[in-house]
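Dear colleague,

Thank you for sharing your sequence with our group. We've completed the structure prediction you requested, and as agreed, I am returning the results in plain text so they can be pasted directly into your records. Please verify that the sequence below matches your submission; if there's any discrepancy, let me know and we will rerun it promptly.
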Amino acid sequence: MIRPTHVLRLAPLLLVLAITALPGQGTPRRVIITLRPASGEAALRAPGSPPVSSTELSQISARLDRDLPSLRETGRAPFAGMLFAEVSAAEATRLASDPNVAMVEEDRLWSPADAATALSSGDRWAALRASPRRGADAIPWGVSRVTGPEVWAAGNTGAGVKVAVMDSGIDTGHSDLTVVGGYNAVTRVASDYSDNLGICNGHGTHIAGTIAARNNGAGVVGVAPDAQLYAIKVFQDVNGSCLAYTSNQIAGLNWAVAQGIRLVNVSIGGSSSGSYNAAIAAAADQGTFLIAAAGNNGGAVLYPAAAPSAIAVAALDAQNLRASWSSFGPEVGFAAPGVSINSTMPGGGYGTKSGTSMAAPHVAGVAALLLAAQPGLTLDGLRQKLRDGTLDVDAGGFDNNTGYGLVRAQNSLGGGSPPPPVPLSMAVSPLFRSTTATAGGAATGSSAAITLSGDNSSTTGWTATKRKSWTTLTTGSGTGSGTVAWNRSTTGLAAGTYVDTITVAAAGVASQSIIDTLRITAAPVPLTMTVSPLFRSTTATAGTAATGSSATITLSGDNSSTTAWTATKRKSWTTLTTGSGTGSGTVAWNRSTTGLAAGTYVDTITVAATGVASRSIIDTLRITAAPVPLVLSVSPASRNVTAQVGTAAPNGNAAVTLTGDNAGTTGWTATKRKSWTTLTTGSGTGSGTVAWNRSTTGLAAGTYVDTITVAAAGAGLAQHHRHPADHRGAGAAGAVGQPGLAQRVGPGRHRGARRQRHRHPHR
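Please find the predicted structure tokens below.
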């Protein structure tokens, strides 16, 4: 089915686009005003003429300017009966209700349609392989695919057909381009239409080369190398972006219609615009046809390509498959090469771009060849000729992806044969995959893209196989291009490197192998530090040296041998002799008793290392007082008593005193020598009393001396005292004629201790 030409017939219907005011109702907004002719004028309009005469357009403009004080006209498009203006939001409503105004629309910004996804290496190789050379001139693969060289060979190079590129301008100094003329729709002058905006990346110059690069033995060659090339500059720098106002594009069409240009290539994308639709229809009605890029969003076709009177073009790759990013829908009419297209660039150079922006100029070039052969073609006639030569590359018949298919100039002109079959090929990318996991931990899965291209590629099945048990294929087969995917398991695998080969096979093509590497690292060992022991203590006597001490520091885990540690102490009586180190080691310290009285002293020695918790050693220093020697004394050291023969003698005793360390728990014993002495208290613990009795039985009058020795372990010697005793006969003054008794009592030693004795003669 052929899409009919859509010509805008303005009926008395009011179309209004609401315009939201910026802050302040008087803020001017850019608008496009589509005028409605008086009923009488519309009836007199001749086919192929503007919808509003130039006289009536001027009259309506003058009246609007008078009635709307805020209205400021900025341009006109007489071919479509339109005015461009700035008007306040408040008066926009009044403007839309004017009887001579069919539509008021906000003037929006549009962007280039070349933001396509980057090519895979397989796409680039296929595109390069499909670009033959002819002498010193490279024929881009897209130019060959639309059969340009075959038509040139028959003598048709598009000579005499005017083709305009409405874009960022054209590099007028490029040796491979002949620019006949142009128009700057931004400044509204027929000059300065060079492609000199860096932010637009040479968009217009690249498109121009695909349409009409010269066949001059150098560089590249376009589809219609002798077509008359015009530049219409509509893009401008808007806050650092390459954008074009709707009004400037309509102004560009107005200039193209006035110049008798037959084809206008527009590789621009945006949302629906009633004004633009009307302008495209008016241009087609007057013999100027719009070839437009469908868009690169992978979704609905963008405007202006979606306009009923435009020819919308989708993009194909070197295998005649729709590029994944190429917009699709019922508005798509045809398809053309749009992946890895080599063409002219500003500065006299060349470059490769992808996008429906690159596909549309192929159709514009083919259309130029058709118009060169049949200048009288209408829009419907041009569409039919294009359809006559297409190659159906997608579903049978018309489809939303590629329309009627790939355009071919030679076939549209009634000659040629279908292009040779495209061999089936398969590419797998990437061919190397790797990941690293920790032993016992989870390993990430991976995948690779499988691209089948050529004849029957969409119905060709593929399967994948793996070799190792640690690999599990999660997507191991498919039909047409797809993805092979797999998981990896570390279960049972020690640290090391493991390699598997995943092979993808399809009938009719060589298999491809993916080398998959799984690197397993040992599980990390956390850094730990222990200090042992955590408690240290010593005892010293005040004023004497205290022993030093130490503790073992053990660092273990990753990086333990290179981890440094430091020790700190709190007390002045502690001196660190080894206070730092690297890896496991020993912290050591000395203690000083200088200036310290008897008591208990505690210090904390803290060991710290980066990445681990610090550890503290509690160090206790106990200081005791200097020892007091044990001394034994007996008082009195001697006793004298007198008794008469045959009578009882008085009992005797002496105080035993122990002083010094452990005096209260030290035991003592007493010994006597004479038989007439009987010890009644002969031992004790601590200070006490030694006591004895004296017996005169059997003793004649005289003096008798005994020695009572008191001894205690570890005690020094005390002084001895004599205790003489007279034993007298009966009578006055103490029993004259009777012998007397005397006793000596003193300290001594046990177990070989030296005894001090004082003897009295026995008379």
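Summary note from our side: Residues 425-521 form a domain with the Immunoglobulin-like fold (CATH 2.60.40.10).

Kind regards,
the structure core
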